[in-house]
Design brief:
This protein is an alpha+beta fold. The protein is built from five helices and 17 strands. The strands form four sheets. Strands 11-17-16-15-14-13-12 form a seven-stranded antiparallel β-sheet, covered by helices on one side. Strands 5-6-7-8 form a four-stranded antiparallel β-sheet, with no helix packed on it. The chain has a three-stranded antiparallel β-sheet with strand order 1-10-9, with no helix packed on it. The chain is globular. Bound molecules: FE2/S2 (inorganic) cluster and fe (ii) ion.
Length: 330
């Protein structure tokens, strides 16, 4: 089968795999991301463990029937136990504990209610720390309003959307083509766009500031009518599909807002969220059916796509390209 995208399927970075509030002490859940089966659990010390799903003993899936004892996950098949570092902590019926019984553990962090896992194809430890969103947990801001999709595309294709200025007008119907500016800063891409919004029939000059921390984790802040923070994530499932999650927070106090009535603020904000969601849903049929062009034929009105394409190179490794050349996916 020919590859749909020339770049490796799984870029380096932090990617959301779950929400903190969805996994309590004692919970064990199966996951499938990065083309791999995984198990996530929370021990009694509150710490999360993300392990290779299959038990090194005889291969049971720890996420289907596994339980938590102390700070370890217990395999449902013969009760071998593994802690969040992947260390085998007990084989209850062995008189001598076997060597090499440890399993692979992934780096996980909890940031602003999201559980993020570090992906590196050669198992290098994290190159950076994903930042929290200060709005999360602040009494001036609402909790998340969540929405998610599974989309048949690639992380890089979807991230490129933000710097593709012209499509905002022609696909999404914005009044003008926004003058988006992008600046590379190591693994971060800072973006700034002016945005003209309409309130009570009057144009309001706003702006959108967006920080991409690799391909997996983005914080976007909208200023203008009602201040909104969108923490979004995009996690590769396999070589063909990406799990996208949007998490909106609205500033509850009226500072930074043109609107004086809180009920009106929520109504306007909900309309605003729907508009952002509608934009993503307009992108889906393009993403699911397009091909990737490299190098693209660009014109002077296209926005900072060139800057973006330089920035993305750091998220793939030489070893991944070598595996692709050998006919093995990476
Ligand atoms: S397969 Fe897990 S303990 Fe035997
Ligand atoms: Fe778009």
């Amino acid at each position: 089968m020919t590859r749909r995208f020339p770049m490796p399927s799984f870029p380096v970075g932090w990617f959301q795999i779950a929400y903190s509030e969805d996994i309590d002490v004692g919970d064990v859940i199966p996951l499938h991301y990065f083309g791999q089966h995984l198990v996530l659990f929370r021990g009694e010390d509150q710490k999360l463990g993300l392990l290779h799903a299959y038990c090194p003993h005889l291969g049971a899936h720890l996420g289907h029937g596994g339980t938590v004892k102390g700070n370890s996950v217990v395999c449902p098949f013969h009760a071998w136990q593994f802690d969040c570092t992947g260390k085998c902590t007990d084989v209850p019926y062995a008189t001598r504990q076997p060597k090499r019984a440890d399993t692979k553990a992934w780096h996980v962090v909890e940031r602003s209610g999201l559980i993020l896992a570090w992906y590196h194809p050669d198992d290098e430890p994290p190159h950076w720390d994903p930042p929290a969103a200060p709005e999360y947990g602040d009494p001036e801001w609402t909790d998340y309003t969540r929405k998610d999709w599974t989309i048949r595309s690639h992380n890089q294709e979807m991230a490129e959307n933000a710097v593709d200025s012209a499509h905002f007008h022609y696909l999404h119907g914005t009044q003008n083509i926004p003058a988006t500016e992008a600046e590379r800063n190591g693994h971060i891409l800072h973006m700034k766009s002016p945005a003209t919004m309409t309130y009570k029939g009057m144009p309001v000059e706003g702006k959108i500031l967006s920080d991409l921390y690799g391909f997996g984790y983005t914080q976007t802040r909208f200023f203008g009518i009602a201040e909104t923070c969108l923490v979004s994530s995009a996690t590769p499932i396999d070589g063909e599909h990406v799990h996208v999650r949007f998490n909106f927070m609205l500033r509850k106090t009226l500072a930074g807002s043109l609107i004086e009535d809180p009920a009106m603020l929520e109504m306007v904000s909900s309309k605003f969220r729907s508009a952002v969601i509608r934009e993503l849903e307009q992108d889906i049929p393009i993403w699911e059916n397009k091909i990737y062009i490299a190098p693209p034929v660009l014109c002077d009105g296209d926005g900072p796509i060139g800057i973006f394409r330089k920035w993305v190179k750091q998220f793939y490794t030489q070893s991944q390209y070598e595996r692709i050349e050998q006919g093995l996916d990476a």
